[in-house]
TrEMBL record:
Residues 151-161 have a biased composition (Basic and acidic residues). It comes from the Eukaryota. Residues 123-145, 162-171 have a biased composition (Acidic residues). Keywords: rRNA processing, Signal. Residues 1-32 form the signal peptide. It holds the Pfam family WGG. GO terms for biological process: rRNA processing. Residues 114-171 are annotated as: Disordered. Belongs to the TSR2 family. This is Pre-rRNA-processing protein TSR2.
Length: 171
């Protein structure tokens, strides 16, 4: 039981440090603290119920983020968190585990004083309802979203080559 309590504390700390969840909590109207504890409980149950792999944990993380927080996590952070949780589970009997969890909790406390920000550039384009669908159904209000990646470096336009009267390109 002491090791399970330690693992539960570690799960909570890992979840509270996960930028995807922190951002979802900041933008969500859901009961944040309560939902995180339920999230941690489901993860703990998964580990107690069977021998789990990275894929099992990642699938659960993504499912809960989608269903409970209306958030689709498309980066590799769920995979990294899954690996961290499995490593924590495997090292529960280690004497260094208690100090590691305390360090994680201190990081959570420091992180709690900062906000996670994300910038999404969206272009929203209405889709006509006149298009013929293969299944014959027309849905109103469909919105097609296109995301443009931000430019990291401004490009300078190359000047057009200058060609003289004889057809030679000036350098």
């Amino acid at each position: 039981p002491a090791q399970l309590t330690l693992f539960a504390r570690a799960i909570l700390a890992h979840l509270r440090l996960w930028p995807a969840l922190r951002l979802a909590l900041q933008t969500s109207t859901a009961q944040g603290k309560e939902n995180v504890q339920l999230f941690a409980s489901e993860i703990l149950e998964l580990f107690q119920s069977k021998r789990v792999g990275v894929d099992d944990v990642e699938e659960l993380l993504l499912q809960i983020m989608d269903e409970e927080f209306d958030t689709l996590v498309e980066d590799e952070s769920a995979l990294a968190l899954s690996r961290a949780l499995i490593l924590t589970w495997e090292n529960l009997t280690s004497p260094e585990m208690e100090p590691s969890v305390k360090l994680l909790e201190e990081q959570v406390e420091r992180a709690g004083r900062t906000r996670v920000t994300a910038q999404v550039r969206e272009e929203v384009e209405e889709v006509d309802g006149d298009d013929d669908d293969d299944d014959g159904e027309e849905e109103e209000g469909d919105v097609e979203m296109q995301y443009e990646a931000p430019r990291l470096v401004e490009r300078k336009e190359k000047p057009e080559p200058v060609v003289d009267d004889d057809g030679f390109t000036l350098v």
